[in-house]
Amino acid sequence: MGSQLLSKHLRAFMEEHSATTHGEGVDKLLAGTMNVLGQFFYALQVPACWKLIDIEKQGDDQWVFHWVSTSTEAICPDCQTVTSKQPKLYFLRTIQDIPLAERTVHHQIRGNRYACINPQCAAGKGFSFVEQYPEIADRRSRLSHRLTEFVIRVALDGSCNQTSKSLRTIGIRVSRDSIIRALKKKGAHIVKENLERDDVVVLSMDDINLRKGQSSTACTVFIDAETHRVLVIVQGASSDVTGKVLDQYSSVEKVCRDRACAYAKASNERNLEQIADRFHLVQNIHSAVKEALSFALPRDVFIREGEGWLRMANSAKEEPAPEITKDSLQEDALAFIGPASLSPEDIERRIDWLSLANDPLQNIGKHWQFWNSTFAVTNSQPLLEK
């Protein structure tokens, strides 16, 4: 299906149903109607100097809004001089916006070119530049501000590839690379704002590895301890890197850190009050308790199970199983779980077979195969011969 212009449909309707309006009157009425439609759909969303001249339907999945700029002055991007000199040149720019009725929306603007009138301009007097529209999109950007924000919110919940495919189903055509660039640009903007903050009093820091176990990928995370907001993540965990970040926050009075010597050194050099974070305090307590228990607890722990005993042994240092005879089975039986590589199902079976201690002579002939397989794991000789 080819393109269709709304202006043609409106003109035909006006000429058919208006007996008093012809020629120039139809043109004025048509232009006024288009302008009203533009203000109705995009009030406060597009620059005030934009005037809608037509709406084009391309196929079954795209809308193109044709605008013309009515601006009379612009600011030179190099010297910031306001100029109203317009050469007889114009340019066309296309910006994608939020879709309508699951159809892709493009704004095509016929903008003006201006010439700088400042003789001291670095680009030279008479430098020609095109006007920009910061209200709706960044310079050279093909996506509007609100569409970019929507894409970023969706991309944060998944991958860029999947986001690109999902957005296409609702009329947003954006590539994976465009999403990545938008994310990086947004992240850089947020980091810049965070580094310029002057209200951070307590700064918390900790190190992470982008790849587990690889210290070469170490990074340092800086968090506002009062708002629990991540401020910046920098590459490296040295005192030099930490010091450069601390120098950005002149309002910091206290530093919350772990036991890293690099963080302590950077904080001491700047005479900052240092606080140990709760996580590492609790971690130190756990380590001390485990170390104390390792000396206090016996090597083997026996658990009573019915008429027998279950011995929880250190399988890494387990000695070969002692030889068990029919006479020894008449007394309290000893069983143990090991080695550590046994499956949970096998361990449960061994615990269940502790019931042999209740009447070992009656069940020993019936279950001798299980005892052979059980103790053959830790002792190369079978426990009982058939």
Structural topology:
Elements lengths: L2 E3 H12 L6 H19 L7 E9 L3 E8 L4 E2 L6 E2 L6 E11 L2 E13 L12 E3 L14 H11 L4 H9 L7 H20 L6 E8 L8 E7 L4 E7 L3 H10 L5 E4 L3 H9 L3 E4 L1 H19 L4 E5 L2 E5 L13 H4 L4 E3 L7 H9 L7 H4 L4 H8 L11
Parallel strand pairs: 3-7, 9-12, 12-13, 15-16
Antiparallel strand pairs: 1-2, 2-3, 4-5, 6-7, 7-8, 9-10, 10-11, 14-15
Helix pairs in contact: 1-2, 3-5, 4-5, 6-7
Describe the structure.
It is elongated, with a radius of gyration of 38 Å. It is α/β, with parallel strands linked by helices. The protein is built from twelve helices and 16 strands. The N and C termini lie far apart (87 Å). The strands form four sheets. Strands 1, 2, 3, 6, 7 and 8 form a six-stranded mixed sheet that branches. Strands 11-10-9-12-13 form a five-stranded mixed sheet. It has a three-stranded mixed sheet with strand order 14-15-16, with no helix packed on it. Helix 1 crosses helix 2, helix 3 crosses helix 5 and helix 6 crosses helix 7.
Strand content: 15-25%
Uncertain segments of ≥5 residues (pLDDT<50)?
328-341, 356-386
Helix content: 25-40%
Rg result: 38 Å
